[in-house]
Amino acid sequence: MAGPVGLRNPRSLCFALPLGRGDRLVVVGSFPEVVRSAGAMGVDTVSVLTSRQREAARRGGEVAIVDAGDAVPLADGWADHLIIPALRDWQRYLLARELARIVRPGGHLFLAAKAAWRPTRDRSALTLRHGRRLLRNGGFKVVEEYAMRPGLHNPHHLVPVASSEALRWYVECAYLPVTGGGLLHARVLRRVPSRLLALTLFPALGVRARRTDDEVTR
């Protein structure tokens, strides 16, 4: 493990990817701490960046520079896994036309984004439904969805959204202090539906998806 963020650290969103020594990982965006941690595990990484992010990329790892509409200069099926630690507007075209091409069939993707209550014009935020559609249209099948807190690239907690038990545990044991006021607050939150509870308490969503074997429609 290298530095405060490590792929073996359960607080890191990277644990949701089945990474192993010798795997190839594509990191979309400038996240040198993720690249360093992957390298410490023996994972080969390539960061996909815009030309404006070139300076940050010099901290380590191989780099592919793209601009809007460019193809990613990696071969078909090159990557075993791919991670988008914080969705940005410029990355959407990559999901639409490039990312499934460079990830081998059966490989995994982890996408993290700001959580949205309802459809929004903020292209860095996702609702659960929009996240599923975005990944499905890009050639990935959603495996599991997480509520994330507090940060995108190094969250302290990833709680499976589909597990009402996990969400309730988080409310009662991790989110609130064990005080009279905290217990009262927890009692109120128990009445909130699970999906609404996830979007209420967690500022970000994480989605793990698998590259499908089907040919992606271009």
Instruction: Please report the number of helical segments.
Output: 8
Q: How large is the share of residues in beta strands?
A: 25-35%
Residues in helices, as a percent range? 25-40%
Largest sheet: 9 strands, mixed
CATH homologous group name: Vaccinia Virus protein VP39
The top-level CATH class is Alpha Beta
**How would you classify the helix and strand content by structural class?**
alpha/beta
Mean pLDDT: 78
Name the overall outline. Answer: elongated
SSE succession: EHEHEEHHEEHEEHHHE
CATH architecture assignment name: 3-Layer(aba) Sandwich
Write down the Rg.
18 Å
What is the tally of beta strands?
9
Q: Which runs of at least 5 residues are low in confidence (pLDDT < 50)?
A: 1-11
Per the CATH scheme, the topology name is Rossmann fold
Number of domains: 1
- Terminal CA distance: 39 Å
Summarize the structure.
With 218 residues, this protein is of the alpha/beta class.
3D structure, described in words:
It is a single chain. The chain is α/β, with parallel strands linked by helices and 218 residues long. It has one domain (13-162, 202-211): Rossmann fold (3-Layer(aba) Sandwich). It has helices at residues 32-40, 54-57, 92-97, 99-102, 128-137, 164-175, 180-189, 194-201; strands at residues 24-28, 44-49, 62-65, 79-84, 103-115, 125-126, 140-149, 157-160, 204-211. Strands 1, 2, 3, 4, 5, 6, 7, 8 and 9 form a nine-stranded mixed sheet that branches. The radius of gyration is 18 Å and the shape is elongated. It starts with 23 loop residues before the first strand and ends in a 7-residue tail after the last strand. The model is unreliable at 1-11 (pLDDT under 50).
